[in-house]
């Protein structure tokens, strides 16, 4: 029996993963990652890193980040404290959903995660103070292979739920996409 409810989203390969809790008088147990169950959702490589970030202020934004091949990575993004609006953008060259985005709320309470394939940019905005995001990646961090697109890039047009209250200098200076951008090849 799978410990997850796996739902295909509008961009191919992007999945919503809902953790099933096993509750008792003490609380609950749930799996955050399970290689056997998540292979069905497309996660077939070993986990390279498990990262945790904490964001203090509501409305703060991290992203949109990706890594170029051969360092492209899949991510399983989980919010374990607070609430976030999590967004994935399809940057895959030739994809029928190229430059389309999908966003949804992730929280400890709704037990939802996003499984984001290689070739997507990822980012999120916090919907509450003191958010903690725990995410697994299928490839090690490779700063020289990192790419970024602006959270407000008009070529993508993400609708963020809140005004941006805080953002890193790097994330506010990603180069704007041009009409000539054909996407990234994996
Ligand atoms: C992601 C990462 C960062 N770092 C360092 C670089 C820098 O000094 C510091 C903070 O890095 P950043 O500002 O890139 O952290 P952050 O903005 O939290 O980056 C994350 O954002 C979300 C949206 C993602 O999708 C992740 O893949 C990752 O890119 O941590 C590592 O040492 N290892 C890592 O794996």
| Morphology | globular
Give Rg in angstroms.
Answer: 16 Å
* Contiguous helical run count: 1
CATH superfamily: Jelly Rolls
Q: What's the short story on this structure?
A:
It is built from 1 helix and 14 strands.
What does this structure look like?
By secondary structure, the protein is mainly β. It has a single domain (4-173), classed as Jelly Rolls. Helix content is 3%, strand content 41%. It contains one helix and 14 strands; from the N terminus they run ββββαββββββββββ. It has one helix at 35-39, and strands at residues 4-8, 15-19, 22-24, 27-29, 49-55, 60-67, 75-81, 83-90, 101-107, 112-116, 120-126, 131-137, 146-148, 166-167. The longest helix is centred in the N-terminal third of the chain and has 5 residues, at 35-39. The radius of gyration is 16 Å and the shape is globular. This is dTDP-4-dehydrorhamnose 3,5-epimerase.
Name some characteristics of this structure.
mainly beta, 186 residues, 6-stranded antiparallel beta sheet, 1 helix, 3% helix, 6-stranded mixed beta sheet, globular, Jelly Rolls, binds dtdp-4-keto-L-rhamnose
């Amino acid at each position: 029996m799978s410990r997850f409810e796996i739902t295909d989203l509008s961009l191919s390969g992007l999945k919503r993963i809902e953790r099933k809790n096993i509750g008792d008088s003490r609380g609950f147990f749930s799996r955050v990652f399970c290689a056997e169950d998540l292979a069905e959702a497309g996660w077939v490589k070993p986990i390279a890193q498990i990262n945790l970030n904490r964001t203090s202020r509501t409305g703060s934004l991290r992203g949109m980040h990706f890594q170029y091949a051969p360092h492209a990575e899949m991510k399983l993004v989980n919010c374990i404290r607070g609430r976030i609006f999590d967004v994935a953008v399809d940057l895959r060259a030739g994809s029928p959903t190229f430059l389309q985005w999908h966003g949804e709320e992730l929280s400890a309470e709704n037990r939802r995660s996003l499984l984001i394939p290689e070739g997507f940019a990822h980012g999120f905005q916090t919907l509450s103070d003191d958010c903690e995001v725990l995410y697994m990646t299928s490839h090690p961090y490779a700063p020289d292979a990192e790419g970024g697109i602006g959270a407000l890039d008009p070529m993508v047009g993400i609708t963020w739920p809140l005004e941006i209250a805080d953002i890193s200098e790097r994330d506010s200076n990603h180069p704007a996409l041009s009409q000539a951008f054909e996407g990234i090849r994996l």
